[in-house]
Design goal:
The chain is an alpha+beta fold. It has one domain (4-88). It is built from 2 helices and 4 strands; from the N terminus they run E-H-H-E-E-E. Strand 2 and strand 3 form a beta hairpin.
Length: 95
């Protein structure tokens, strides 16, 4: 089993951070992303997560540095530089 998956987008989030989290955890679990249970929203509001890292109306980035949460036994760290780190609980390092 893989201990962690770290993904850095070439640009700030090529896709929504919530979708990146779902894809990475599905990969670790060996499941289809649509089959993950419970769904991500049982741990965190996906729309709120995405909005934290979306540019403002003026095109500026938001001031959020990182968001950390646990989903399906994995620690998740979403960073403002586009990196999403998914690791087994107690191993996520957002630095």
């Amino acid at each position: 089993m893989v201990d962690a998956i770290s993904t850095r987008s070439e640009t700030l989030f090529d896709e929504k951070p919530s979708l990146t989290v779902i894809d990475r955890i599905a990969e670790l679990e060996g499941e289809d992303p649509a089959e993950l249970s419970p769904p991500l929203y049982a741990s965190i509001d996906p729309q709120a997560l995405d909005s934290l890292f979306r540019s403002t109306n003026t095109g500026e980035s938001r001031t959020i540095e990182t968001v950390q949460f646990t989903y399906l036994g994995y620690d998740v760290c979403v960073r403002s530089d586009g990196e999403v780190i998914v690791s087994e609980s107690a191993r996520a390092d957002c630095r």
